[in-house]
Design brief:
- With about 475 residues, the protein is an all-alpha fold.
- The protein has a domain at about 260-475.
- It is built from 19 helices and no strands.
- Helix 3 (about 60-85) packs antiparallel against helix 10 (about 230-255) and helix 11 (about 260-280) packs parallel to helix 17 (about 395-420).
- The longest helix is centred in the N-terminal third of the chain and has 33 residues, at about 140-170.
Length: about 475
């Protein structure tokens, strides 16, 4: 049964709430492994939905599900050591919410009904909020309320967008079930005005959860206050799930002949996100907030690639995969830096290369990867988006795109160089490096490099299936 993919982490998450912490850690790892196995079975079409009117597999959903399940496994390995080192309060709640978070995100990827998709995305907010507040500080409380309130308002707007799409079908008296599959089949018959209105609200609503500017304001606070394993999941997985909601409606708009309308909106939000991220990364005093603004920028890159279309669309999907891998690795490395120096302030760190050489390799390599340097996959994805902009004659978009990339890279480089090589003006080293907290970062980075050298045929074909309906092309 396909629903087992999200029922497994939900049931194990609820179980972990009431068992001893040591057993809960084991449940976390076992559930992560079983979830990856179920994901593989879904990829091989060995799982059929019990409720086909609400859940089904789609190429884009399966791709994001695989990315989510893959990074969750390595984040779980890291989290066990991280929780022990920090002597985290309410560790059983943290483990439980991590698994519930995985379950709700998995539900998002398998939802074929717009309202079910909306419910699943709203559920991700509720189960991930305790992960941000787990340290129970004043700053964590503020970040949690900000996250819940802003995202809930955004999700409410997305629900209104879903209703408008329903009206687009009802006004024309179209006899079709309310699923994305059915709506795509009758898209040319839907009322275009209600579709346009629906897309605007969904773009703003799900764009809030995706971290697109100017609706991004919850993201820097939440990412900086959450423990590093939670930050890695928020950035590496949750943002993709929100993007999935936008992408499905963008496909519907394209099939309905309104692709130019939704594409221009995507490009507009993408450019604003990249510019805002570039401005705020400059002179950023908190390295975890720096990584959060980098996520805002990369969500903008994905939105621009999807909006441009063609080969840039292929680049956008590649960017989604590699951003999840590299940004998750960076947040795990940031967790090691926080454990070592006991602070998120850049000015109180320094000399990472000498004090924590293994963490330095992962952190600096992650910076190179997220900045678009080879041999990491973001180099290829951004190059494809640039080529796509040239092919489509989007020269103004390309100029702003390149300027923002330079701005973000310069701002991040200043911070990374300060942490890596400047004199250490902070406290003494608090925690020594441990390989159990280093290997997950290395594995994620090596996966990004490996996918550049050789991409499995199944992943390549699922990407082609994802972009085919939008006219995405790949040459060679």
């Amino acid at each position: 049964m396909l629903e087992f993919v999200f029922l497994l982490p939900i049931v194990t998450g609820l179980t972990a709430m009431f068992v001893p912490v040591a057993l809960g850690r084991g449940i976390l790892l076992i559930a992560a492994l079983l979830h990856l196995q179920l994901t593989a079975m879904a990829w091989m079409n060995k799982l059929n939905p019990y409720f086909p009117d609400y859940f089904s597999t789609s190429p884009e959903g399966l791709l994001i599900l695989l990315v989510t399940s893959f990074i969750f496994l390595f984040i779980s390995v890291y989290a066990i050591s991280y929780m022990r080192e920090t002597e985290m309060q309410s560790e059983h709640i943290f483990i439980s919410c991590m698994l519930l978070f995985l379950g709700t995100m998995s539900m998002v990827t398998l939802s074929d009904h717009p309202i079910v998709l909306w419910i699943a995305i709203e559920a991700t907010t509720l189960v991930s909020a305790p992960l941000i507040f787990i340290n129970r500080s004043k700053e964590a409380l503020e970040a949690t309320w900000k996250y819940v309130l802003i995202c809930s308002v955004g999700i409410a707007l997305a629900l209104l967008g879903c209703f408008f799409i329903t009206l687009a079908m009802d006004i024309k008296d179209i006899d079709a079930s309310l699923t994305f599959s059915s709506l795509n089949a009758v898209a040319d018959q839907l009322d275009p005005n209600w579709l346009k209105a629906g897309f605007i609200f969904i773009m703003i609503g799900f764009g809030t959860k995706m971290g697109l500017a100017p609706m991004h304001t919850w993201l820097p606070d939440a990412h900086s206050q959450a423990p590093s394993p939670a930050s890695a999941l928020l950035s590496g997985a949750l943002l993709n799930c929100a993007f999935l909601g936008i992408y499905k409606v963008h496909v519907l708009m394209h099939v309905a002949g309104l692709g130019d309308y939704s594409s221009n909106i995507l490009i507009g939000f993408g450019l604003v996100s990249m510019f805002v991220a570039g401005i705020f990364i400059l002179n950023q005093p908190d390295y975890k907030r720096m990584l959060a603004y980098s996520s805002v920028e990369n969500m903008g890159v994905i939105a621009i690639g999807v909006g441009i279309g063609g080969i840039a669309l292929y680049g956008a999907i590649l960017h989604l995969i590699h951003h999840s891998l590299i940004k998750s690795s960076l947040f795990l490395s940031a967790g090691n830096i926080l454990l070592g120096f006991g602070t998120r302030l850049v000015k109180r760190t320094g000399n990472l290369a000498r004090l924590f050489p293994k963490t330095f390799v992962a952190f600096f390599a992650g910076f190179a990867g997220i900045s678009g340097f080879p041999p990491f996959g973001i180099f290829i994805s951004e190059l494809l988006i640039i080529m796509g902009a040239f092919q489509r004659g989007r020269y103004a978009v390309l100029a702003i795109f390149l300027f923002c990339l330079t701005l973000v890279c310069a701002g991040a480089a200043r911070i990374v160089m300060r942490i890596s090589f400047a004199a250490n003006t902070g406290e003494d080293v608090l925690v020594e490096e441990r390989m159990i907290r280093i290997l997950p970062s290395y594995a994620l980075l090596l996966t990004s490099i490996g996918l550049c050298l050789w991409m499995p045929e199944s992943i390549y074909q699922i990407i082609l299936s994802t972009i085919k309906v939008l006219g995405g092309v790949v040459h060679g």
